[in-house]
Amino acid sequence: MKSRLVIRAGVALAGVALLAACSGPTGTNTQNTQNNSSSGSSGDLKVAVITHGTSGDAFWSVVKVGAEDAGKQLGVGVTYNSDGDPGAQAKLIDNAVSQKVGGIVVSMANPDALKTSIENAVKAGIPVITINSGSAKSAEFGAMAHVGQEETIAGEEAGKKLKAASKTKLLCVIHEAGNSGLNQRCDGARTGFGGSVENLQVDISNPTDVEARIKAKLQSDTAIDGVLALNPQVAVNAASAIKGASSKAQVATFDLNADVVSAIKAGDVLFAVDQQQYEQGYLPIVMLKLFKDNANTLGGGKPVLTGPGFVDKSNVDKVAEYAKAGKR
Q1: Neighbouring residues of 294: CB distance < 8 A, sequence distance ≥ 6
Q2: Are 289 and 73 a contacting pair, CB within 8 Å?
Q3: Hey, which of 19, 72, 193, 250 would disulfide with 41, CB 3.0 to 4.6 Å?
Q4: Could you tell me which of 114, 54, 119, 122 has the C-alpha nearest to residue 87?
Q5: CB of 90 within 8 A of CB of 109?
């Protein structure tokens, strides 16, 4: 599996190196809002990026920066829209189809809600690349490729690392209801951990409540010595909850931002599972450009994997400056 990841990453990055003259993009780690819409550079190829990013989730701002940077470097017109409601996200796809865009990039946290819209895009002759979540349904719906992290595999590896850190009871915090990828992360962690794992549902749009719920759980069950957050913001809330509850637990998280980097340095977070979401925005634009110009495809019908990687105290300094710039 690892050798395949290296090969796929090498192929994708080679394509980037050939097409992009810039040494590297820059960006700021700003928060997304629902129904957020923005346009990158203009060009002959128009691509609509449509994600399930929700208000207050800085993860998606990095995806957005990646897509827009690729558009600027490759002369592709990129428009970014997001909505956490699956029905509203489907309408955004329908709108892109009616505008006859040259390509669609879409995340599928709730694949079944997007099925008809994606299939209609494919029927209209618009190439679709799925990203981040929903990889199991990507080919079935007619997408030409999927770019992202296999959530079950990443969860298993996170669980193994927590077990190696001598944790015995784990709390896995799910921050978006109905997001199949988050459940896959927790299920994978349960397999890799091998011990007791309990899920806790919270709402990421209410950080105060997130912290309160985690704190209450830790106070009611003092046997919990590990908290696996599935989002950087939730990780910071969890670290604060642990202190408030005077708990012995330690936090690990999925995904990376500047706050998590600081928390890893301070010892408040053990490690972050890094799926390199910048690439999830950037690489699909490269792939659609290659497809338009040269009928190239990547992945061979399998996902193009951007993770999992791990950031901990051993390598956090190396990626800190990129996270601060909004690229990790």
Answers
A1: none
A2: no
A3: 72
A4: 114
A5: no
Phi, psi of 96 (to 5 degrees): -65, -40
- The distance from CA 192 to its chain's CA centroid, rounded to whole angstroms, is 20
- Please name the amino acid found at residue 328: R
Count of alpha carbons within 13 angstroms of residue 292, beta-carbon side? 22
Q: What global pTM score does this model have? A: 0.76
- Quickly tell me which residue has 């981040």 as its tokens: 132
pLDDT grade, residue 5 (50/70/90)?
A: very low
Strand partners, 46: 77
Sheet holding 145-148, edge to edge: 36-39, 76-82, 45-51, 103-107, 128-131, 145-148, 304-305
Distance, in Å, from the CA atom of 326 to the CA atom of 25, rounded to the nearest integer, reads 10
Q: Which residue has the higher pLDDT, 7 or 198?
A: 198
pLDDT digits (tens, 9 = 90+) for 174-209: 998 888 889 999 999 999 999 899 999 999 989 999
Q: Is the pLDDT of residue 40 over 80?
A: no
Give yes or no for residue 9 having a pLDDT over 50: no
User: Residue 27: pLDDT above 80?
Assistant: no
The order of strands in the sheet holding 309-311 is: 196-201, 169-174, 226-229, 250-254, 269-274, 309-311
**How far is CA 326 from each of CA 25, 39, 136, 179, rounded to the nearest angstrom?**
10, 18, 29, 24
pLDDT of residue 24: 33
CB 77 within 8 A of CB 103: no
Residue 54 and residue 65: Cα distance in Å, rounded?
16
Largest CA distance in the chain: 59
Average pLDDT over residues 107-126: 97
Q: Residue 117 above 70 pLDDT?
A: yes
With b for 16 or more beta-carbon neighbours within 10 A and e for fewer, the 14-49 pattern comes to: ebbeebbeeeebebebeebbbebeeebeebebbbbb
| Dihedral sign computed on CA atoms, order 204, 37, 59, 196 | positive
